Amino acid sequence: MCPLHNRVDKRLLKQRILNDTTPRTTLSFYRYVIIQDIEILRNELYRMWDKLGCLGRIYIAREGINAQMTVPTSQMNQFKEELYTIPYFKDVPFKIAVEENGKSFFKLVIKIKQKIVADGLNDDAFDVTNVGKHLTAKEFNEALENPDTIVVDMRNHYESEIGKFKNAICPDVDTFKEELPLVAEMLKEKKEKKLLLYCTGGIRCEKASAYFKHLGFEDVNQLHGGIIDYVRQVKNEGLENKFLGRNFVFDERMAERISEDIIANCHQCGKPFDLHTNCKNVACNLLFIQCPDCQEKMNNCCSEDCMNIVALPEDAQKELRKGHQKEYSKMLFKKGRYNKL
Fold first, then answer.
1. Three-class SS of residue 36?
2. What positions carry a catalytic annotation?
3. According to a count of CB atoms within 10 Å of the terminal CB, is the N or C end of the chain lower?
4. Other CB atoms within 10 Å distance of the CB of residue 149
């Protein structure tokens, strides 16, 4: 029987996948469904996907599943067949990555969570199944043309910073949990307007649309399949692409190029640039935008303090990190707001 958790050092796993030439398909899917025996299902999925060579980050909760993963392309049919035998996930639709290098994930992680997306909502207080109207890419484009329409980016500021729909409201927040009440307050006098919501793959809009309908918004709509499926539809149907820049993704790729527009800037020198990186100082690990010139000049670090730490021997770096892990982990979530940038 295979172990139900990864036991290999993550650096070794990362190098292994970088050297691997196996063609892989990067995909995501979610489904809100009441799951009874979460731990049993989690272990069943781990065995199934480990056997097929799948990698990724999957969250399971009583309310459903949220998965981002890569599957060996040769195993895709088997992957679908086996997943669809589980009644919870019968015919669940997949969103296939726009840009593919097969290096999106380097280990298989399946975690049991309280919720598949942290939203801070009391789901018993409203009907989470009463969601907004799902719009195709064509319908979404048409709705964008209406000057009375309000379009809201339901992602975090570091996501919308590098890519968004034109004229979208992009709340300056770090988390989805912060965004929901903020948007509700911003639009409280506009509940009769046509509301368009979009996010990466649709999962955040699924919950947000039900929440806004509960609050009395009259015409709530969401981009079906999110930005990922929007791009697929645009290409397949020859539609106009109204998304500017890159789509931020939560894996090793960091982002997918959707249009040639560069709407962001390097956080250190201000040059037009739109790809995030993590600070080389593992204690910091700050997510920020850094152009190639600054990357070379700053040794992949966010600040001179981190450059000085990275220059120390590894043992000395470990010593400095002792007792400060909580403090350092908070820096990561500043997402480009660090005052030393």
1. coil
2. 199
3. N
4. 17
